[in-house]
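User: Hey, quick favor. My workstation is busy. Could you predict this chain's structure for me?
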Amino acid sequence: MDASALRQLQAPLKARYTDDPGAAVVTLTADGELDGSGIACRVRTASAIAEAGLHPATGGDGSQLCSGDMLLEALVACAGVTLRAVATALGLEVGGSVRAEGDLDFRGTLGVAKDAPVGFSDIRLTFALDTTADAEQVATLIKLTERYCVVLQTLVSSPTTSVVVSA
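Assistant: No problem, here it is.
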């Protein structure tokens, strides 16, 4: 897809959202099923069922997905798609790879040390780009990718989150 095709594809959406800002607000959902036979949660994705379980650092055997890994994978997917969309809009040819790394202190999630954080303390997102774009174009590409990547901005802004239980 080139910049013209992308603009043509997105133009009616942008016009609709400008005229009716409420139409741009979409509630995304994810659903999981608690597995009664083990410590797992089955999550339905668009194309498969992903089974998440304990990370080996918390007693898992490594045969199930780790939700922390899935978070980083979501960041990589979103950042990669966003970068490609921005590159297309800017008329830049870009290839390469995206990597996310995150540091976890498993003492926190295991309750070993009350002062140890639960969750990632640091996340690093790295792009290894293969492009003929100059340094200024790459800087613009990354700036816009950071600005428009939904997962990155969600992590950075820490939205209000609530937990509801029905029994």
